[in-house]
Specification:
Largest sheet: 7 strands, parallel
Distance between the termini: 18 Å
Radius of gyration: 21 Å
Order of helices and strands: EHEHEHHHEHEHEHEEEHEHEHEEHEHEH
Number of strands: 15
Strand content: 15-25%
Structural class: alpha/beta
Number of helices: 14
Low-confidence stretches: none
Shape: globular
CATH topology of the largest domain: Rossmann fold
Length: about 375
C-alpha cells in the first residue's frame, strides 16, 4: 500500500506583483522542497497564473489556485466582519459557491493550512480578515492545523476587528509575527515574535554580485492606496533623490533604480531619468530571476521594506525612507531594531551617505535558525 503523502495548503500574496511577496512564498516552497519533496502542495494566491510562472518548479508537486482569495472577494458586504462570516460559511458549506466547491474541498483535506507572512492583514486591507476565517473553517473540517507566520498587523484595524482577529488567532496551532507592535496588538500568550519569513531562505540566489553593480541603488515609491497618507508626492520624492545623489557626488552611470511593484515603482524613475539618462533600471522580473545587484562599497535608499531587508542581509548600508508613516514606520523600524544598521528618515532632509551597515553574520544565522525552528514545528512532524 502506498503511504499517503502529506497535503499542505499555503495562502499568500505571491504574484500580487510585489518583490517581497514572491520572495516569501519562494522561501517556503524551497524549504518544503528540501524537507517534504513528496508532499502535495497548493498555493492559494491572488494571481495563480502569474504565481505559476514565477514559483512553479521550486517544489516538484505544486498547484496554484486563488480559491480563498476569490471567496473573500465574493462577499457581498466588504465590511471585515461580514467578509469573515461569509468566508467561514462558504468554506464550511462549499455548495454555496458551486464553482469553487472542488477547490474548497481540497483545502478542507489539508494537513496544514498556512497563512504565509507579509503585511496584508491590517487596517488598510480589512477584507483580508476573511483569510484567517477561511483557514479556521477549513481546519475545523479536516482536523488539520492552522498556522500563520511572519505576520505584520500594522496599521491596526479598529478594535472590533482586532478582537475578532484575536478570536481567530486563538484557534491557530501556531501564530508567529515579525515585529513587536504586531505581537502587542494581538495580545495573546501564545504569539511567537520572530522575524520576516524571508529570513528562512536568505542566500546567494537572491543576489547578483559584480563590479558592474551600481554604487547607489534606489527603490523609491509613493502610494495612492485609499487610506494611506503619504509624506511626499512623486515629484517631491524625485527631487529628494536627485538632491541626495548630487550631495553624495554620485555619477549618473553609478545609480540603479529598483522596481518592486510594477505600476508604482517606475514613477519616480520616470520623473528623474531625463536628468539621469545614464541611470540603470532593474525591473521586478529581472531581480526575481537574477537577484539584487550588490557590490562592495554600495549603499541604498529604499522606501520599501524587502529591499531594506535583502540589501542589509548582503551587508549593504542604507537609508530607509518612510514615505507613508502609518504603513512603513513599523516595517523599517523592525529591521533596524533587528540590526540592519540602516538610518530611518522620517522627512525629506538630505542624509549623509551611509558607509557602514548591514546585518551582522551572527544575526543572520540566528534569524535563519529561528525561522527554521518554526518551520520544523509546522512541517517536520508530517
Amino acid at each position: 500500500m502506498t503511504e499517503k503523502q502529506p497535503c499542505y495548503y499555503l495562502v499568500c500574496t505571491a504574484a500580487g506583483l510585489n518583490y517581497g511577496d514572491d520572495l516569501i512564498a519562494a522561501a517556503w516552497l524551497r524549504y518544503l522542497a528540501e524537507k517534504q519533496p513528496g508532499a502535495d502542495i497548493t498555493v492559494d494566491s491572488v494571481m495563480p497564473e502569474v504565481a505559476q510562472s514565477t514559483l512553479g518548479g521550486i517544489h516538484p508537486s505544486t498547484r496554484f489556485t486563488d480559491t480563498l482569495w476569490m471567496t473573500c472577494f465574493d462577499s457581498p458586504d466588504p465590511e471585515p466582519l461580514a467578509v469573515s462570516s461569509f468566508v467561514n460559511q462558504a468554506i464550511g458549506h462549499p455548495g454555496r459557491i458551486p464553482s469553487r466547491a472542488a477547490d474548497i474541498e481540497r483545502m478542507a483535506r489539508a494537513d496544514v493550512v498556512h497563512l504565509v507572512g507579509g503585511g496584508f492583514l491590517n487596517g488598510l486591507f480589512q477584507w483580508t480578515f476573511g483569510l484567517p476565517a477561511g483557514i479556521v473553517a477549513a481546519t475545523q473540517r479536516s482536523g488539520g492545523r492552522a498556522v500563520m507566520t511572519g505576520q505584520c498587523f500594522c496599521p491596526a484595524p479598529p478594535e472590533p476587528v482586532v478582537k475578532h482577529l484575536r478570536e481567530l488567532a486563538e484557534q491557530f496551532a501556531l501564530v508567529d509575527v515579525r515585529d513587536e507592535a504586531s505581537a502587542s496588538l494581538l495580545g495573546i500568550d501564545t504569539v511567537n515574535l520572530s522575524v520576516d519569513d524571508v529570513f528562512l531562505s536568505v542566500g546567494p540566489g537572491m543576489y547578483q554580485h559584480g563590479a558592474g553593480a551600481p554604487q547607489v541603488m534606489v527603490c523609491a515609491h509613493t502610494d495612492t492606496t485609499p487610506g494611506l497618507t503619504g509624506r511626499a508626492t512623486v515629484s517631491e520624492l524625485a527631487e529628494f533623490v536627485l538632491k541626495t545623489l548630487s550631495h553624495w557626488e554620485v555619477k549618473e552611470e553609478d545609480v540603479g533604480f529598483l522596481e518592486c511593484f510594477p505600476g508604482l515603482d517606475h514613477k519616480v524613475f520616470e520623473s528623474v531619468k531625463q536628468r539621469l539618462p545614464g541611470a540603470r533600471f532593474y525591473g521586478l522580473y529581472e531581480i526575481l530571476g537574477t537577484g539584487l545587484p550588490v557590490a562592495e562599497d554600495q549603499c541604498w535608499i529604499s522606501t520599501r521594506f524587502h529591499p531594506h531587508l535583502v540589501a542589509a542581509a548582503a551587508g549593504m548600508p542604507g537609508v530607509a525612507l518612510s514615505v507613508i508613516p502609518e504603513y512603513y514606520d513599523v516595517k523599517h523600524r523592525s529591521l533596524i531594531s533587528q540590526g540592519s544598521g540602516w538610518q530611518l528618515l522620517s522627512n525629506l532632509s538630505i542624509p549623509s551617505r551611509p558607509t557602514r551597515g548591514g546585518f551582522p553574520q551572527d544575526r543572520l544565522k540566528s534569524y535563519a535558525a529561528e525561522k527554521h525552528r518554526i518551520a520544523d514545528l509546522i512541517y517536520a512532524a508530517d
